[in-house]
Design brief:
- The protein is mainly α.
- The chain has one domain.
- Helix content is 49%, strand content 0%.
- The longest helix has 21 residues.
- It is rod-shaped.
- The chain starts with a helix and ends in an 11-residue tail after the last helix.
């Protein structure tokens, strides 16, 4: 009886460790690691000449607060703080 209890405890511990390892590289709410989002890449890697690739006109309007048609570092940082970018969009 003692052997069965020890084996059961060992199986439960091993199963929990396997589940914990499968989720370590995933974003909290998505299927893509966080390092692929524009905020994780940073301003210099995400914004070229004041523009971001694949950014919809509505999103650009939300990010570009002063309406000059370009994304400044402060506008980018504010958009990241407000979670305006989709972290799953690895092309931006």
């Amino acid at each position: 009886m003692k052997t069965i209890s020890i084996l059961t405890a060992a199986l439960l511990l091993a199963g929990g460790a396997a589940v914990a390892q499968t989720n370590k590289d995933k974003a909290p709410g998505g299927n893509v690691p966080l390092a692929q989002g524009p905020c994780s890449k940073g301003f210099d890697n995400s914004v070229k000449d004041g523009r971001m690739a694949n950014l919809s006109p509505d999103m650009m309007k939300s990010v570009d607060k002063n309406g000059d048609g370009r994304i400044s570092k402060s506008e980018f940082d504010a958009a990241c703080a407000n979670r305006l970018f989709k972290e799953q969009d690895s092309k931006s």
